[in-house]
Write a structure and sequence with these properties.
5 helices; mainly alpha; globular; 59% helix; 434 Repressor (Amino-terminal Domain)
Length: 73
């Protein structure tokens, strides 16, 4: 759920995975894994992504809850 929402927002902002990864200082494969749901996103990274994408971190969570977000870094 979180990864799907990140992808939708990223695409709406016209960014590809490589561009987003560069702006939040991670490798593009990490963005891919997060969007596919095979990797959870830390709260710190989610906050950085929200800032880059110009949205609120709550937009990533959506209606489904917080199961895909870790509190550690």
């Amino acid at each position: 759920m979180v990864g799907e929402n990140i992808k939708k927002i990223r695409l709406a902002k016209g960014l590809n995975q490589k561009e987003l990864a560069k702006r939040v200082h991670v490798v593009p494969s990490m963005i891919c894994q997060i969007e596919r749901g095979s990797r959870t996103v830390s709260l710190v990274l989610a906050e950085e992504m929200a800032q880059v994408l110009g949205c609120d971190i709550k937009d990533f969570i959506g209606e489904g809850g917080r199961q895909d977000v870790r509190r550690d870094t």
